[in-house]
Write a structure and sequence with these properties.
264 residues, alpha/beta, 5-stranded mixed sheet, 12 strands, globular
């Protein structure tokens, strides 16, 4: 039996994340569902998401619509209580150095950092916003793949890139736990999309997981929920993620793959 919550698993928060899972696992066991005693923090994510013994994990919207639809079952999504967004929605914050801030259009020909080409928040949402501004399939002068949102923040702070799109939840956590974020500022926010899907195997106990996570969060101290940037859990249907697939298809149709290039 496999369970993980890998997307916002910052080292400084692992004890609190572990408590969340411990409470949820106890809730599952109380209704006769076996649950591993600890979250798994190893292995390759795509292989883990497709394990037949997957009890719970969290993926990104783009991997969900590109590779996981029809192969996993949705549990719901976390509500992070992000300002100006409906419950369960999120967006990307486009960040630049404080001394180099300006409208996104002013970064034509500059260097962009992104975590991964299959990240909705780090690449997909930014491609969607940039697409109308491209000329000949280009906007940026160079693209640097960093492997993580934290890596993208550091790349901009270290002047290896000029701009990056960062998951809004990760940005909130970075402001608290990543010193390099202090030298950056938000120059734009992308349109909202549903937050990261919580998933289980096709025959997994989605309803019981939703209830267990909801109860686990409700039972935690408000300071713990605030530390995790978590307010609750919201239901999700497959159709909710069509917007991610539509944005992705539009970029593919236009032949714009600029954020698929480069390496750290």
């Amino acid at each position: 039996m496999y369970a993980s919550l890998p997307m916002y698993d910052w080292p400084a928060l692992r004890a609190t994340t572990d408590e969340l899972w411990d409470r949820a696992a106890q809730g599952l066991r109380s209704v006769g569902i076996a649950a591993p005693p600890a979250l798994d923090r190893g292995g390759m994510l795509y292989q883990s998401w497709l394990r037949p013994d997957l009890l719970l994990s969290q993926t990104c919207g783009m991997p969900y619509v590109r590779r996981l639809r029809g192969k996993v079952r949705l549990v719901g999504a976390m509500d992070h209580g992000l300002p100006g967004l409906a419950a369960g929605m999120y967006c990307s914050r486009v960040v630049a150095r404080r001394g180099d801030a300006g409208p996104l259009s002013s970064f034509r020909g500059r260097r962009v950092a992104y975590n991964s080409a299959d990240s909705q928040s780090g690449a997909g949402a930014l491609r969607h916003v940039i697409l109308p501004m491209t000329v000949g399939g280009r906007f940026f002068g160079a693209a640097l793949a960093t492997g993580s949102h934290a890596g993208s923040i550091r790349a901009v702070a270290d002047d290896r890139a000029d701009v990056a799109a960062v998951d809004a939840v990760t940005w909130e956590l970075a402001l608290r736990h990543l010193p390099e974020a202090g030298g950056l500022t938000v120059i734009a926010s992308t349109p909202p999309t549903p937050g990261l899907p919580l998933i289980t195997a096709l025959d997994g106990p989605a309803d019981a997981l939703f209830d267990a996570l909801t109860a686990a969060l409700a039972g935690m101290h408000p300071d713990q929920r605030a530390a995790l940037v978590l307010h609750g859990v919201v239901p999700r249907a497959d159709v909710d993620f069509d917007i991610v697939a539509e944005w992705d298809a539009a970029v593919v149709t236009a032949g714009y793959h600029e954020l698929d290039q480069g390496s750290a």
